Amino acid sequence: MKKITVLLLLLMVLFVPSAVFANGDQESPATAAAPAEVKANAVETAALAYFSDFPGNRMITTEDLMAKMDAGEDFLILDIRQADVYNQGHLKGAVNAPWGPAIADALAWLPDDKPVYVNCYTGQTAGQAVAVLNVAGIQASSIRYGYNLGIAKTAGVEAYLTKDASMAPEASGVKYNPEIKAAVEAYFNAIPEKGSNIMSAEQVKAALDSEEITTVVSIRAADAYAEGHIMGAINIPWGQGMQEKFSSLPKDEKFVVYCYSGQTAGQTVGILRLLGYDAVSLKSGMGTPVTAPSGWANEGYPVVK
């Protein structure tokens, strides 16, 4: 009987530590071996959604915007030209936040519950701003061809212009994803150092000749690409699903993106740079009659079929 009792006591001593180990503060072997949960990158998810949830080109013509002004629709116009140019004339109600850090500061007052129409000089930096602001949750679209090539050349626009500055609204109270907000602020705060993220046709040609740049991406439609493109350019047509081809682009070197007039290329560059690519856009793209004499073909640089 004593032998049986001693044996039972020994068994209890052996099993008690295991029970405590499993149920105490320390992890059991099964828990320790479980794989760690991978946290999704909020910036990457939102940036890729820009094209996977594609609503269109996110541009508005001056005529359509004038009609909205006549109808008294609720929206905000963001003029990202330099202050001295803004003061010479702008659309009524437009608030000035010059391209660069001022747009990062504007996150404090930009609304997320109504459209924001962004104006620059020719629509190219506005394209970048539109893409980056949409990633942050702002319903931004650009004014097609900007002030110089769009607004100023629209019949009857004089009645919609003013030299009176509009004050920025009060803080909007938008609750941004902290990770995305930091990335968006970093994008605009880096502008003085990195400039406009736009290269002229002359600069691109020189960079290609010297092999400083070896990758060129045409985001024009396939038929336009077939009619003529920059030698060696790969074609990733603008629109829904184009983000699926981004993984084929180099992450370790600068490359050029071009479209027709530089506006949708600007949007594409905005997304690519948020994703970590060193992408720049070609000023005025391939070139259109509106952008003449600026643009690759307009300036007489070679195209191939």
Structural features, described:
This protein is an alpha/beta fold and 305 residues long. The protein folds into two domains: 42-192, Oxidized Rhodanese, domain 1, CATH 3.40.250.10; 197-282, Rhodanese-like domain (Oxidized Rhodanese, domain 1), CATH 3.40.250. 40% of the residues lie in helices and 11% in strands. The protein contains 13 helices and twelve strands. It has helices spanning 2-23, 29-33, 42-52, 62-71, 83-88, 101-106, 124-136, 146-150, 178-189, 191-194, 201-209, 222-227, 263-274, and strands at 59-60, 76-79, 90-91, 95-96, 116-119, 140-143, 161-162, 198-199, 216-218, 234-235, 255-258, 279-282. The protein has a five-stranded parallel sheet with strand order 1-6-5-2-4. A five-stranded parallel sheet has the order 8-12-11-9-10. A two-stranded antiparallel sheet has the order 3-7. The longest helix has 22 residues, at 2-23. The radius of gyration is 27 Å and the shape is globular. The termini are far apart.
